[in-house]
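#structure-requests
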Amino acid sequence: MKPIPSVPLEMQTFVEDEMRRRAEAFFDFMKQRHSTRDFADKPVPLDVIMTCLATAGRAPSGANQQPWHFVVVTDPATKHKIRLAAEEEERAFYAGRASEEWLEALAPLGTDADKSFIDRAGCLIVIFAQSYGLADDGSRVKHYYVQESVGIATGFLIAALHNAGLACLTHTPSPMGFLSEILNRPKNERAYINLVVGYPAENAQVPLHALEKKALSEFVSVV
């Protein structure tokens, strides 16, 4: 195989005791991360959001094609427009589009068609997945492992926001085509998640059901 241009890996390693300490400390920190619908009506610092997005942009992706685009929405009028469109879809969802099984699974979380948190939260980060890229001449560039890549970047972003002291909620109305229309995104992009971001309200609540996480033995096998 022909050698490819490369640079030395810059990564800090640790002795095992320090590895354990850091792994446990990070786990304890991430245990505090929960989705909430209770946001304070307070602006978020845009530079903090941008730094968190820079972290998301460091995520691995198929063939390093980085098939994602993030739209940060702070304008109240645009947020409200998104809320109204989302509630229209959600009313249809709860009124018959969703199966009884799906609604039963959602019931312990107390979700409904009211999406007023979109207005209150400091910003929205609408995450788009690019099904293909565009070359300078306008031709299509095939993207690989798009859903996986965007999912990993989203995980990086959620962890970065929590690390910065901001709460978030993964909002995924179905369908989400209205987000592309409102935000004027190109045809090669599909809305992946509407990430609602902001300071938690003083009385922010988390449904008890959301605290019921599987034990490690239930989702890990060692071969």
